[in-house]
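Team,

Forwarding the record for the chain on the shared tracking sheet. I've put the sequence and predicted structure together so nobody has to dig through attachments.
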Amino acid sequence: MKIETLAAALVLISMLGSPGTATAQDKKLTHSQLPAAVRRAADEQSKGATVHGYTTEKDEGQTVYEVEMTVHGRSRDVTIDSTGTVLEVEEEVVFDSLPEAVRTGLRQAAGSGAITKVESLTKLGRLVAYEAQVHLGAKRSEVQVGPDGKPLPYPQ
């Protein structure tokens, strides 16, 4: 009985994939495969950056495109809709550059975990949150606070 349960759990885990990997919906694209409006927005957003790749996926029934890049040694991911509108930007930020209230809020949310990376989260041109990756032993998680450093009522 235990072996069958373990086998079923392993099958389920392999079907779900690991966090941070592309889902079955994600599709890698080349620059030339992007729709013209998306290509223009991607080119504008990636000026001075090293582009690592392009993907497309369905998000709540809408086709969106993501550009993964590095700017000045920090990660930056930009999500663009099919009309070329920039929907979201996740940009790595230096922890010490954040306002004190944000640093305090992230530390409180992380508890005894170590904050390893922080990103600003901007939606439709408006800063909505800061997100930190937290490591506690082998456990990995993310915490978010608002631009004022206060806990958010729901994830952004």
